[in-house]
Amino acid sequence: MSGGSVVAGSFVAADYVVFVVMLIMSAAVGVYHAWADRSQRSSGDFLMGGRRLTALPVSLSLSASFMSAITVLSNPAEVYRYGANIGFYGLAYGMTMLVTSEVFLPVFYKLAITSTYEYLELRFSRATRLLGTVLFIAQTILYTGIVIYAPALALNQVTGMDLWGAVISTGVVCTFYCTVGGLKAVVWTDVFQLGVMLAGFLSVIIRSVVLQGGVSNIISDSQHGGRLNFLDFDTNPLRRHTFWTITIGGTFVWISIYGINQAQVQRYIACKSITHARLSLYINLLGLWSILLSSVFAGMCLYSVYKSCDPWTSGLVSAPDQLMPYLVMDILGDYPGLPGLFVAAAYSGSLSTVSSSINALAAVTVEDLIKPYTNLCEKHLSWISKGMSFLYGVLCIGMAGLASLMGGVLQAAISIFGVIGGPLLGLFTLGILCPSANSKGALTGLVSGLVVSLWVGIGAQIYPPSPEMTRPLSLTTEGCNFTATQGSNWTSTTFPTQPGSTSTPQVHMDSSRPVLADWYSLSYLYFSPIGTIIVIIVGLIVSMFTGGCKLKVEPKLMLTKEDTTLYYLFKFFKDRVRKLDLKKDREKKFGNMNPAFYGAELD
Questions:
Q1: Domain spans, the chain
Q2: 239 and 469 in contact (C-beta within 8 Å)?
Q3: How far apart are CA 148 and CA 397, in angstroms?
Q4: Which residues of the chain register pLDDT less than 50?
Q5: How many CB atoms are located within 10 Å of the residue 49 CB?
Q6: How far apart are CA 238 and CA 254, in angstroms?
Q7: The pLDDT of residue 180
Q8: For residues 147 and 153, what is the distance between their CA atoms, to the nearest angstrom?
């Protein structure tokens, strides 16, 4: 393989076969669950799987849901350009699962709610619930359209795969199995798609390792190229990725997803017991770590192969997100079917994310906007749930079309979308952990958090960070054996829509920067903590002045010590110590007498 050769390859029949098989398998899962559950006609069966799911499939579904194609394409490109310190997301994932399991899961599970926003009405007011629901619906429709379109564009420009054929086929298949199979179909297709994603990564990694002469050579190349930058403990909040921005900011971002986002919460509260729900979160952590490790090492492979001839600055690709597809066509093009496997992996990421979003959108629409205002029977609600799944699927495909027409505008819009999760996290935290918070404080806090988050988000688009904070590590074209036909291209064809997605566009700096330029230049990972903290502080202050201290909250709406695993562990060890002390006292009193004389029940 020549690092400087222009890739002339494109998809062949075998690649299309692999891609189509992935789509057929996904659709087949939906058909199976529609047939298997044909006698179950309630909306609860459709939206929540009858609350009979077990830990293993739910955990794999949780792992796949927010690991979209943008992750498959952007994370390796991030490592290639900026280094492997995004591996610190592993710590953020661990903290996220701990907080979700101990704080949010117990409250949502014991309430047995379908929509997380139902909690907001129980705890605060209907207005709070409706505002949360509307925010979720708007951001999710926008998000899913981009998740379909962005990877299709990057893959189309490198592999030659038909852009709209891929967009429409994935959108239609996803809508189909969500509509006919409900949550069970979504969960089990996610399991299959997670396997495809990992297989796609492994095909690239194994071939790269063979070409580069072993894992040690790839690690050595990354070390010499400065890509193993794991000792970056710079506390400067303007740096986009350091240990602190990723572990602190990343933890807030992912808690806003696993802790309160309908798409994730809906899965683990559909488990048949709280033990299965907790277990699903921790098994899911292994899945997240596997995908993160695979994407980081794929990025190291990318750097090792192109360390002396960068396809991006040499003009062979027009955006960093095309680097992985370019590598695939370069090193796997002679193996029919394997490029198709990687593209199937990328689209499996899209399908898993979009299906989760469609199912969650249907759930909140039925539970928050239809059920409270009608007296429909369960059979009718079930049909409405399926209709909503179909409608949202069509809207997501339409949003993908809109993305193709409004790329620049949507890029800014999707960046703004990323700041909504923080204020919503602050709102739920206020309700679950702060008994003095009332509805006035909650609404005021939410609006304040949104205003500040949007202010920072919009400011960051107008006044981007200084080049020193976003400049990639060294890249060279010295080893290329062709004449570059275009210079550096610092634009991106995909959008930073997902927490952890690292395709941040580079924008030319304005010569007149305002006094607040540094405030706007904060790492995007700190937007979520800012929104969360503002909501909690403002919410508590307003509540204090509007009678919150006299508020009586139902215990089931708050986190109590009995809800936590730590309480049961403490109780278990306390009981064991008490029994051991009692046994020692009796042995001391009765000597070596047969235990039957003083009570064998000690054990």
A1: 13-557, 564-602
A2: yes
A3: 8
A4: 1-8, 408-413, 484-510, 602-603
A5: 27
A6: 20
A7: 83
A8: 11
CA distances (Å), 88 to each of 76, 92, 226, 248, 538, in order? 14, 7, 16, 10, 31
Amino acid 501: pLDDT = 43
**Structure tokens, 431:** 């309700």
Contact 51, 196 (CB under 8 A): no
Predicted confidence at residue 3, as pLDDT, reads: 44
DSSP letter (8 states) at residue 335: S
pLDDT, residue 514, reads 67
Statement: 13-557 belongs to CATH 3.30.1330.10: no
Q: What is the pLDDT of residue 429?
A: 96
Predicted local confidence at residue 6, as pLDDT? 41
10 Å Cβ neighbour count for 120? 28
502: number of Cβ within 10 Å: 24
336: left (phi over 0), alpha (psi -120 to 50) or beta: beta
- CA nearest to 417, candidates 520, 534, 527: 527
Residue 89 in tokens: 């997301």
Pair 178, 186: CB distance under 8 Å: yes
Opening angle at CA 176, ends 54 and 167, nearest 5: 115
- Please tell me whether residue 53 adopts helix, strand or coil conformation: strand
Provide the β-strand partners of residue 271: 53
Among 192, 209, 191, 196, CA closest to 298: 209
DSSP state, residue 1: -
Confidence at residue 318, expressed as pLDDT on a 0 to 100 scale? 82
Which tens digit of pLDDT belongs to each residue from 44-95? 666 666 677 888 888 988 888 767 776 788 889 999 999 999 999 999 999 9
Task: Report how far residue 262's alpha carbon sits from residue 363's, in angstroms, rounded to the nearest whole number.
Answer: 8
